[in-house]
Amino acid sequence: MTATLTPDILSALEAQAIELPSWAFGNSGTRFKVFGTPGTPRDPYEKIADAAQVHEHTALAPTVALHIPWDKVASYDDLRAHAEGLGVALGTVNSNTFQDDDYKFGALTHEDDRIRRKAIDHHLECIDIMDATGSRDLKIWLAEGSNYPGQNDLRARQDRLQDSLQQIYARIGENQRLVLEYKFFEPAFYHTDVPDWGTSYVQVAALGERAMVCLDTGHHAPGTNIEFIVMQLLRLGKLGSFDFNSRFYADDDLIVGAADPFQLFRILDQVIRGGGLNNPDVAFMLDQCHNLEAKIPGQIRSVLNVQEMTARALLIDREALAAAQSANDVLGANAIYMDAFQTDVRPALAEWRESRGLPADPMAAFAASGYLERIEADRVGGVQAGWGA
Ligand code: AOS
Ligand code: ZN
Ligand code: ZN
């Protein structure tokens, strides 16, 4: 089945915006090897230039998330002007408390007041940067936990976490938000201080209205019904943002929609059902790394995957579905749902893109643009950016 996209669907798609992570353009790898790639950005300015390419070819990615200290620069006003000159804006600021020896046994949960203070101060510095970049969201992901039963007092760590978050939240501006990400394991293996949406919810609910939960699609145990969590957080008004990616086994950070497009469809269905699509209170971000594939096309493929699954989810005949659900028509309801998922929206999206002056095939247009060849030739020398740089 191929789709006809109605004006309502097209206007919902036109408003769609997906934030790109600056770190997707730097080198990354596994704990076994980081592969260097010709043309990889050498600084945050070049990462933003690459991100702007994604937006230029798709009109889907108007903002770029920063990671501090990886994206530290002398002047954030200058970085902001650079981004704006390329047609994009600076987005979420991500803190980092996982690459400093001091944080070996915790940061915002640390028993030692000096280390906990240092971690809190790092977040206050991130908020100063947000003031300069015009960013709304401070995203906190914590690598904290323990490896052995008995190693730590789990409860005291929750109390210290709440106290640290209170101090950070007190500095969050009127138009800013604190977004707390959860992850069920890694790098700690026995317990993680923010392992699930419930813990994140409990911690941010105690802070106030401008504190929200971040749902990273790769941070759940296999078999978890993620769309149920999406529904619940939207119902509670606490879904602040998504980190989109795909996983097969753990936190694989692969291209969103690559491992399980049906799961992405189901998530986006709940987003639409819960009023989250194009709702400014819900930020859609990618949190991915491209270890083997080329980075800019990897990001283009990713935002197109989100767009395609959004279009399919918008095709669900909600009236017919509601009627089938009320009638307990099990197979009828499932068939309506699956009909939308099984519809090929690609030809209709290509045609629509062309009608807006965009390339029908953004992947092919980027490949033909010569940009990749240019950066490979120009960015010789210097240190390539990557995790930790
Ligand atoms: C880590 O697993 C998380 O997904 C975070 O979102 C992290 O901040 C991101 O991967 C970049 O460091
Ligand atoms: Zn994440
Ligand atoms: Zn992750």
Q: Could you write a compact summary of the structure shown?
A:
This is Rhamnose isomerase. This protein has 389 residues and is an alpha/beta fold.
Blueprint of the fold:
Blueprint: H1 7-14, E1 20-21, H2 44-58, E2 63-67, H3 76-85, E3 89-94, H4 113-133, E4 137-140, E5 145-146, H5 154-169, E6 177-181, E7 191-192, H6 197-205, E8 211-216, H7 226-235, E9 239-244, H8 261-273, E10 283-286, H9 295-314, H10 318-326, H11 330-341, H12 346-355, H13 362-369, H14 371-378
Parallel strand pairs: 1-2, 2-3, 3-4, 4-6, 6-8, 8-9, 9-10
Antiparallel strand pairs: 5-7
Helix pairs in contact: 2-9, 2-13, 4-5, 7-8, 8-9, 10-11
The structure holds D-allose and zinc ion (2 copies).
One zinc ion binds next to loops.
List the main descriptive attributes of the protein structure presented here.
389 residues; 43% helix; two-stranded antiparallel sheet; alpha/beta; 11% strand; 8-stranded parallel sheet; binds D-allose; 14 helices; binds zinc ion; globular; TIM Barrel; single chain
